[in-house]
Write a structure and sequence with these properties.
This protein is mostly helical. The protein folds into 2 domains: 94 residues, RNA polymerase sigma factor, region 2, helix turn helix motif (Rna Polymerase Sigma Factor, Chain: A); 49 residues, Arc Repressor Mutant, subunit A (Orthogonal Bundle). It is built from 8 helices and no strands. It is flat.
Length: 203
């Protein structure tokens, strides 16, 4: 299984290889990051086919515009997550706007149309916000150090208490509590911003 966190040197070399048009480099990037891209897209859109489409679009962008990634600005993984979030949120907006425009009868009510439109905007922004927080949480979980992620998985997905978690991980109870506390602190930042961490070069 590929390492979750690519070293900076790998990031720089990958960007250079993509810029030279090496198809093998795109294949390596896909093997390493496709599951992340698909997971983030699915978190935003909640649809397998839509997530597949976003995954294709993201890697097409990587192939066609490798120069938009600047290794000095952060890891390749972070940039790809930001690109994925941008593409997925735009698809979500487009989909929700189409649904709103079509309406139950394919047209807005003449008297209530303006109010419905304003309510629709708020509903769309709420959906985008919730999807963004979920995507950020998913990104944080997959990006955090393996010991922290494993502790969270045991405690919250397998319903282990901290004593059982310590036993399963082969660590002291104090260390298990520390890992859980740090993991939860990282997860709590999912509400601090709408998108997975990124930077201006994502566009």
């Amino acid at each position: 299984m590929a390492k979750m966190d690519a070293p900076p040197r790998w990031d720089r070399k990958m960007q250079q290889r993509l810029a030279r048009g090496e198809a093998a480099a795109l294949g390596e990037a896909y093997d390493r990051f496709a599951s992340l891209v698909h997971s983030l897209a699915h978190r935003v859109l909640g649809d397998e086919k839509a997530a597949d489409a976003v995954t294709r679009e993201v890697f097409a962008h990587i192939w066609e515009h490798p120069e938009t990634y600047d290794p000095k600005q952060g890891p390749l993984r972070t940039w790809i997550a930001a690109v994925t979030h941008r593409v997925a949120v735009q698809r979500l907006r487009d989909r929700e706007e189409r649904r709103r425009d079509e309406g139950p009868d394919g047209a807005e009510d003449l008297l209530g149309g303006e109010e419905d439109l304003m309510g629709g905007e708020e509903d769309l922004e709420s959906k985008v916000r919730r999807a963004s927080v979920a995507a950020r949480a998913d990104y944080i979980v997959h990006s955090m150090p393996v010991p922290l992620r494993r502790a969270l998985e045991l405690a919250y997905f397998q319903r282990r208490d901290y004593r059982q978690t310590a036993t399963d991980l082969g660590v002291t109870e104090d260390e298990a509590r520390r890992r859980l506390r740090l993991g939860l602190q990282l997860l709590s930042t999912a509400h601090d911003a709408g998108a997975p961490p990124g930077y201006g070069g994502a566009a």
